[in-house]
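Entry type: protein chain
Record version: 2
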Amino acid sequence: MNHIIKYLVFFFSFILSLQLNAQKFSVSGYVKEASSGEVLIGATVVDKNNPGTGMATNVYGYYSFELAKGSYTLMVSYVGYETKQVDITVDKDISINFNLKEEASSLDEVVVTATRSDENVSSVKMSVEKLDIKKIKSIPALFGEVDVVKSLQLLPGVSTAGEGTSGLFVRGGSSDQNLILLDEATVYNASHLLGFFSVFNPDAVKNVEIYKGGIPAKYGGRISSILDIQMREGNNQEFEASGGIGSISSRLTAEIPVVKDKSSLLLSGRRTYADVFLTFAQDENLRNNTLYFYDFNTKFNYRFSDKDKVFVSGYFGRDKLGFQDLFGFDWGNSTVSTRWNHLFNDKLFLNTTLLYSNYNYGFDVNSAGTGFNWKSGLEEYNLKFDFDYFLNNNNTLFFGANAIYHIFAPAEITSQDNNIQSFNLQNDYAVETALYISNQHTISDKLSMEYGIRYSSFAKIGPDSVSIYEEGLRKSPENEIRTEAYGNGELVKYYGGFEPRLGIRYLVNSTTSLKASYNRMRQYLQVASNSTAGFPTDRWIPADYHIKPVIGDQVALGYFKNLKDNAWEVSVEGYYKWLQNVVDFLPGEDVLLNDRIETAVADGIAWSYGAEFMLRKNVGKTSGWLSYTLSRTQRQIEGVASGEPYLARYDKPHDIALVLSHKFSERLSLSGNWVYSTGAAVTFPQGRYIVNGQNIPYYDDSKRNTSRMPDFHRLDLGFNYDLKSRSEKFNHEINVSFYNVYNRKNPFSIEFRQVNNNDPTFDSSEDGPITSTRPAAVKTALFGIIPSVTYNFSFN
């Protein structure tokens, strides 16, 4: 701990030594949207005659910078909004707020990002992608359900597990290596309907940002990416409502100004109604089935003064799936975020956050007189303090701390059946803490840096029971020599370490920059799963006496170029990532009911590398992007694949995405996307054997992931037509989309079994006709072409 304090004191002393020119005065305030009072994130406030002097607003719409005594013209801008100019005289500290009006629609300019037009070149940030919620809503989607997560899968370096799934695999990382935040609260399972939709209702979302590398010191806990999603605050000027009626779900959002200019309430709900249609089915078995999910988002805020504002937001979602009275399955997330923004002075800004997150699932089985109930879940309580200190025009300091209390409930099984024994897997408890400090430093007009350090720690605590195994032998029940018991709150195992972060930007000229970044991350929680789809039954396991935290290091280099007055963006990024203490399953092991998880897994190393290419057009009647990712992801773990390097399940060497939208007129627009990727790496059976008349596949673990699924590709199209309205306060539109336009049969699974010409599930068009019974690979595709229609509306 003494070393930590020394490092922090040195860092603070170094930063404070940069404070020069005390004769300057601060200019600070908030930038908001005029019609709703929503703060604008990333709006720029600069001196018109010296655009290099100024600041972009933070995630709460706040800015602060310094000017010498004199007269200035401030220029405030935000993409998609009218630029505002204000003359000021500076002879003391000034606080000034700005309200920007949205620009009128124009055929000559269609904005697709919510950032300054040259941010990709001028910012120190790299490996970061932002998607404007309006653009997300224009992308064609499965069943017309606008999906935040699936939109991210169209970006370079981000891939999917397969058809329809909403899991994210970022730069060779597994899905559990992504930290998903909703108003800063952790979302542990971001999927609905077994992965076909994500839990984020687009009507409630304000800002979407994903960090693939160069991750700032304020973030930690995952080694691959940070997905930071912020909810809208709600209109504090006038009542507003919006919603939509789609093919499988409907949604409604209300924004209520509780106290004009000071307080607002957002209420947003979404529900599918497949279960409603099932009640009209002729088949009685179908009528007794259950299939639906719902989301509810809410957010309340109150501004006590220009220095204090409170936010309370929550998300509550659930899935229910049932087959008659034989099987029932439900899972869901709950998050609560309570935040207090306090401005100590024009330079020091504090965000204090108290967070709660709960993810749980359960299922009931009642078949042939045998029945049981399964419950599992996890909770976390998180307290955070995040400070922004606007030191001077060349330095902005960020520092803070957080502490998380984790509760893991792996499994509780209860049964009224004498043939099934009720039992509990022991709960796990842990405390995770972190301290961080970083600085955004403008060294010269050409060179800027963001550097910082984070210290994270993880304490596994009791009650716990730990098996001790004979040294040098595999951790297995037969090699256990004793058990050690730990009482409530007693320390079982402690891990911790420093996580340095560094980002550098060199501005070659006003349209070209070179960037580099390095970050080290520690991840103390992992998912034990045999699939890549992110099923609700995935088991989260913490670092403990035997399982070490994963440590990830990543370096990245990038070239960024803007053309034709920032209308076009070109970027190339290369990265290399290496990981320590990565775990994988040992052959033949299962973790779902294992109370000694260390006996089922082994750890080792992993590495991934690749190049990402992006061409993006931001303005004009036609806009969009083309991305291509070339990558490789491998692992090497003793006891797996004979100890030799092998491909990760989600290794996809080639990934292409083309996303385009075209505005034909003020009312009619067309959007489309085409995707292609190499098939996922898989392990196919090498043979079979028969036990009691049942075919049992045989797998050779030395050939783990040496085969591949067929390559994946698909085209989606969507049309949006703005309906005329007699009232300016009422707007409505029709969206017609076609998923998988050319009806590509992308296999979701491949089953090896005996087939013949009479097998209705076997498609002989690919494998040729079968004249006799023989083993064959039967491919199952989930979706052909799927049309959908959605009616959207809004009024105030």
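Comment: The chain has a mean pLDDT of 85.
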